[in-house]
Amino acid sequence: MSPGRSSRRAAALLALLGAAALPGCGEVLSEGTSAAAGLGGAAIANAVGAGATVTTGIGLGVQAGARAGLHYAQRRAHAAAQASVAAAAGPLPVGGVASWSIAHALPIEPDEHGQVTVARLIGAGTIDCKEIVFSVDGTTEADSTVPPRAFYTATICRDGAAWRWASAEPATERWGSLQ
Amino acid sequence: VRRALLAALLLPALAGCEAVSDLTGAAAGLAAGTVTSNPVIGYGIGVATRAATQSAINWAQRVRQRGEQDAIAEVIGALPPDEPRPWRIAHTIPIGDSSGEARLVREIATPLATCREAIFSVEEDGADGPRQWFLTTACRQGGRWKWAAAEPAVARWGSLH
Hints:
Largest sheet of chain A: 5 strands, antiparallel
Number of helices of chain B: 3
Number of strands of chain A: 5
Order of helices and strands of chain B: HHHEEEEE
Strand order of the largest sheet of chain A: 1-2-3-4-5
Shape of chain B: elongated
Helix content of chain B: 40-55%
Strand content of chain A: 25-35%
Radius of gyration of chain B: 21 Å
Number of helices of chain A: 3
Order of helices and strands of chain A: HHHEEEEE
Largest sheet of chain B: 5 strands, antiparallel
Distance between the termini of chain A: 38 Å
Structural class of chain A: alpha+beta
Distance between the termini of chain B: 33 Å
Helix content of chain A: 40-55%
Oligomer: heterodimer
Largest interface: A-B, 49 and 43 residues
Structural class of chain B: alpha+beta
Radius of gyration of chain A: 21 Å
């Protein structure tokens, strides 16, 4: 790898991280990642001497791959946040309160913290589950519609020694704006 | 100007809005291409517009959805036990207005917050569809009630993206 290419890659990574640090910029991150991938794809096509139509095809293919990669990174970051809440709530009795926090290695999602409590136990045969209420305190997002302390409910179930998030997705009729 | 604004506001009501932002981005890219005659710059402007448009559409959809959630959560907060109460949402743009009724399932009292589990029905105005029932939770935050159902487990939201 030439030094020029590695510095360009470092610059692209920096730009990606810069975009990620902006609050509420999932779309910019998403489009930016795809765009960078598209331009990279065009460079590949130029290197192999392909025509414009082929270049477009390569660009679209690389874009789709980059978008899938970003979604994968976002899911990983969010899974870590859910695991943090579930791990804090797992050992709690009904009515017990514990703190949870998450600091992401990649600033794709905001760092968050709050408290969690167990509302009730849900048992089904040999499967242990808990209904939890957790707070997200002092969200850093400059969005006035987010209250300083927001409460949410979820369910967690035990998987061996670990507790995992168990809330299922909303009914398809209800998730219109999630996509 | 007002017509353009109305058109922009109506976009979120269309199903499959991904395509809308694609079209807007492509249109902007074409327009930029004619100005600069440089395809790379045109492409860059198109992508930036696409990101901004996607962001605006997502934001508008979230505002609409939040309006409906707030309307339902407000009714859930005021529900007496064993008595259904009606709810309705009238959007600023009168598309997709809906209404229904809510019933209290149980109160969730915890040291952190007071929450409620409730079932609610949704009927879109002017639609003759069957009445559908959903289950959700709401918690009191400050002086008001807000929707509290958290996101699904990451392993289950694969197709939400």
